[in-house]
């Protein structure tokens, strides 16, 4: 289902031995501010707890939250002094903006109705109080003109940027988790009623019902659920639950324990672990992102600047011990500047009734 701007995301020894990994990334915008170097990262668990508390207190009275790049503080956009008072009471920093959540939702609805073009994506950038649209290199000049026309009719609520590359789901042939002749990555180990599973991308689990740790190897898991397009998550049940720790490989012999899950906040730093590009770092640039892939749209995604490539699909996006998302795709990577998109992990956890551990 389409979401509004208010919507907000360890592996077995067998998979680790097969270099299985986890992933994320997205890029800049023409009239967006230049991205400053991230501030020292606040404690991820504390940040997400504060963000959740603010969201409960304000609901639609906020047009989004973000982490200030210079101070590391959580900033909450508001349009009324009453809402600002609630923000200060919660311990965050209010910032008055021109457009409320309803106006930004209306802008998203206009894009859905009048500019749903393959090769585009859009999402909320609360730092500029806008919906940030990206159009990849496959979008024609005629469609770019159409995008700009729609944006111009929305009184500054939408900005449009052309980005290099093409938005693609990043499945490839190689090593990691294998199914249906394709390679993906696994994200997070999860559990339900004592049964252990792992999460990966839905466009991966659509491909095959069985998954192996090596190409042509024995099955290590069977598909229990899949959702793509609209969403991009899938669930695989382990057929052998020995040595299935709740951690993410860092591809250097060490691992990151995962203790909780949360939704990403614009401006926060994160890491992506994937079987192709291994561990890359980035910053969240937009939430509630729609990506119009050639084979169907996905909604409620998160855009980052982490690098990724084919085979990283299904990998993990995380901040410290907090699970954030499941890698979906990107429009490519230039140097260290990427464009990865992730599916918020909390939505997948809720859909399947599973938990990280």
TrEMBL record:
Residues 173-347 form the Peptidase S1 domain. Pfam families: Pro_Al_protease, Trypsin. SUPFAM superfamilies: Trypsin-like serine proteases. Disulfide bonds join 184-204, 307-333. The keyword Signal applies. PROSITE patterns: TRYPSIN_HIS, TRYPSIN_SER. GO terms for molecular function: serine-type endopeptidase activity. The active site is at 203 (charge relay system), 232 (charge relay system), 313 (charge relay system). Keywords: Disulfide bond, Hydrolase, Protease, Serine protease, Signal, Zymogen. Residues 1-29 form the signal peptide. GO terms for cellular component: extracellular region. Residues 101-153 form the Peptidase S1A alpha-lytic prodomain domain. GO terms for biological process: proteolysis. The keyword Signal applies. InterPro entries: Pept_S1_alpha_lytic, Pept_S1A_streptogrisin, Peptidase_S1_PA, Peptidase_S1_PA_chymotrypsin, Streptogrisin_prodomain, Trypsin_dom, TRYPSIN_HIS, TRYPSIN_SER. Belongs to the peptidase S1 family. This is Serine protease. It comes from Streptomyces roseolilacinus.
């Amino acid at each position: 289902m389409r979401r509004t701007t208010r919507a907000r995301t360890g592996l077995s020894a067998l998979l680790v031995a097969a270099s299985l990994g986890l992933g994320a990334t997205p890029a800049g915008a023409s009239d967006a501010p230049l991205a400053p170097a991230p501030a020292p990262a606040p404690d991820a668990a504390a940040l997400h707890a504060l963000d959740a508390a603010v969201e409960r207190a304000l609901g639609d009275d906020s047009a989004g939250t973000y982490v200030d790049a210079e101070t590391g503080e959580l900033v909450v956009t508001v349009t009324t002094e009453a809402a600002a008072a609630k923000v200060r009471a919660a311990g965050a920093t209010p910032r008055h903006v021109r457009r409320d959540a309803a106006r930004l939702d209306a802008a998203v609805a206009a894009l859905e109705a009048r500019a749903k073009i393959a090769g585009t994506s859009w999402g909320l950038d609360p730092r500029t109080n806008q919906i940030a649209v990206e159009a990849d290199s496959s979008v024609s000049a005629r469609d770019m003109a159409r995008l700009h026309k729609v944006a111009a009719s929305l009184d500054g609520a939408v900005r449009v940027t052309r980005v290099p590359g093409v938005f693609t789901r990043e499945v490839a042939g190689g090593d990691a988790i294998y199914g249906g002749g394709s390679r993906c990555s696994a994200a997070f180990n999860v559990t339900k009623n004592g049964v252990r599973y792992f999460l990966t991308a839905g466009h991966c689990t659509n491909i095959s019902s069985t998954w192996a740790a090596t190409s042509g190897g024995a099955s290590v898991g069977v598909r229990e659920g899949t959702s793509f397009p609209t969403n991009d998550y899938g669930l695989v049940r382990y057929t052998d639950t020995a040595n299935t720790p709740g951690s993410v490989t860092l591809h250097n012999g060490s691992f990151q324990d995962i203790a909780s899950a949360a939704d990403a906040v614009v401006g926060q730093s994160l890491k992506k672990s994937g079987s192709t590009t291994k561990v890359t770092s980035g910053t969240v640039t937009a939430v509630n992102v729609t990506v119009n892939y050639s084979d169907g749209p996905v909604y409620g995604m998160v855009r980052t600047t982490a690098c990724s490539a084919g085979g990283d699909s299904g990998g993990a996006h995380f901040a410290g011990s907090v699970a954030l998302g499941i890698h979906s795709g990107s429009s490519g990577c230039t140097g260290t500047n990427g464009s990865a998109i992730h599916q918020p992990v909390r939505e997948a956890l809720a859909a399947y009734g599973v938990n990280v551990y």
